[in-house]
Structure formats: structure tokens, C-alpha cells
Design goal:
This protein has 259 residues and is of the alpha+beta class. Helices cover 27% and strands 27% of the residues. The protein contains seven helices and 17 strands.
Length: 259
């Protein structure tokens, strides 16, 4: 069974920022000033979609071309934003990747106070496949919670809970460590809802003290200190692409079973 096609488009302002033409904010200004053309026509809306593989984008008459693909695995520290820049000058992923060529950007989100595995790439198609809401890429978290959830809570988390009026997908939940006051859980999710881990536990009044993503698809966060990054090996890129494709098929199958 084939997965739904994935559109490799991205917003024009983001494309210009990713290619190093300008910061996101400056790119939006260039577009509104009429200095950017798409396939020979001026574009005034920064939200216009562009396909880097097919469309011709020019700034002041000069062609803008995407850089060679870059694939990184980053261990995001706590209290760092998942953005390339921040107007309030708070620490962000862009600071950690300052000297990296190709303008890779973080794929998906980790909360400001969360840490762990982030894929950073300038491959817009792969990034879209990882974060697209209709697909289900495995994400593994180690979660320190205040208290020790009982079996009923663990079973509820596994079977799914209702967030924003919609039930979450089944999840893997097990204990890594149990203490008298706190405990560590291993949670495996196949969705990417906003603050999902924290919100699932908050439903049962369990406060998340620490949150660390340790795996995404076939990638694992092993031997990489906080703030460090490394290039993905070619075989890792291939495995990630294959895992995303398989997740896409699972997503299609699940939707069809609900019809």
C-alpha cells in the first residue's frame, strides 16, 4: 500500500532564511518590498509556498538556490528554544548551529525546559515527513515525574487519553525507576501533539520534573553530551527515510480502519 504523497513545499520566508539569504524577519521584509520573485513574478506574501526543487526564486534579480542537504543529530540542552533566532535574545538552537554550513534547522519541537534528541536538517521534504500530523514516527521519552503512578494510570496512558476533545493514540509506557517520591517513565509516542507528554500526565495530576527525548525513529541519543551535535551517517539517513515512509503507511492504514 502506498502512503499519501508528501508535498515538499515550504514557506517562502523560511526558504530564504534556510538558504542564508536573510533572517526570517528580514526575508519577510524583502518579500513585502517586492524584491522577491517566484517563477518570474513578484510575490508580496511571506506565507507563499515554494517548492525548492521546481520553483525559481530570485532576490533583486539573483537566483537563490538551496544548499546541499545537511543532516544533524543534536542533543538539545534544557532552557534552549527550538528556534534559529529569538528577538528576546534567549538561548536557541541557532546559537548551537551558528557555524554549520547549509543552514539546517530543527525539525519539530521540544519545550524550552525539555532536552534531548533533535534532528536538524535543510531537507524540507524529510522535515515535512517527520512532523506531518497525519504520520506516526516513533518518539521515545524518559520522563521524571513527581510521585509514582499506579497501574490504573499507566494503563490509561497506554490506551490513550482525551486531549482537546480527541483521544491520543496508544502509547508505550513503562517504569525505568521507582523511588519513594519520584519516578522515571519510558514513554513511546507515535504522535506529535503540543506538549503531549506533559499534558497526558497532568490529566492525572502528575507533574513532569524532567523530560528527555532519547530516540526518534531509528535514531538514538547515545554518547552525545548536551549542546553537542554530529552529522548523521549516510546509512542513518537512509534508515530514517525508510522509517518515516513506513510510519506514513501505518498512518494511512489507521485512518482507513476508522472509516
Amino acid at each position: 500500500m502506498k502512503a499519501d504523497p508528501i508535498v515538499s513545499e515550504e514557506r517562502l520566508a523560511r526558504f530564504l532564511a534556510r538558504t542564508g539569504t536573510a533572517s526570517r524577519r528580514h526575508a519577510e521584509e524583502l518579500i513585502r518590498e517586492g524584491r522577491v520573485t517566484l517563477n518570474g513574478k513578484a510575490v508580496l506574501d511571506p506565507g507563499t509556498n515554494v517548492d525548492p526543487k521546481r520553483d525559481a526564486v530570485k532576490v533583486d534579480g539573483k537566483r537563490v538556490k538551496p544548499s546541499a542537504p545537511v543532516y544533524l543529530l543534536l542533543n538539545k540542552p534544557r532552557n534552549v528554544l527550538c528556534t534559529m533566532e529569538d528577538p528576546r535574545r534567549r538561548p536557541c538552537v541557532g546559537d548551537l548551529l551558528l557555524n554549520v554550513k547549509g543552514k539546517p534547522y530543527p525539525v519539530g519541537r521540544l519545550d524550552f525546559d525539555a532536552e534531548g534528541l533533535l534532528v536538524c536538517t535543510n531537507d524540507g521534504e524529510l522535515a515535512n515527513r517527520i512532523i506531518h500530523p497525519r504520520y506516526h514516527v516513533r518518539k521515545v521519552y524518559h520522563v521524571k515525574v513527581k510521585g509514582v503512578p499506579d497501574k490504573k494510570v499507566i494503563d490509561r496512558l497506554r490506551s490513550g487519553v482525551v486531549l482537546d476533545g480527541k483521544k491520543t493514540a496508544t502509547a508505550g509506557v513503562s517504569f525505568l525507576k521507582r523511588g519513594e517520591r519520584n519516578s522515571w517513565l519510558r514513554m513511546t509516542l507515535y504522535e506529535g501533539r503540543n506538549r503531549q507528554v506533559k499534558r497526558m500526565l497532568e490529566l492525572f495530576r502528575y507533574q513532569v520534573l524532567k523530560l528527555r527525548r532519547v530516540a526518534l525513529g531509528p535514531l538514538a541519543l547515545e554518547g552525545l553530551p548536551p549542546g553537542a551535535y554530529r552529522k548523521l551517517r549516510p546509512d542513518e539517513v537512509e534508515k530514517l527515510q525508510a522509517a518515516v515512509a513506513q510510519a506514513a503507511v501505518r498512518g494511512v492504514d489507521k485512518r482507513k480502519r476508522r472509516l
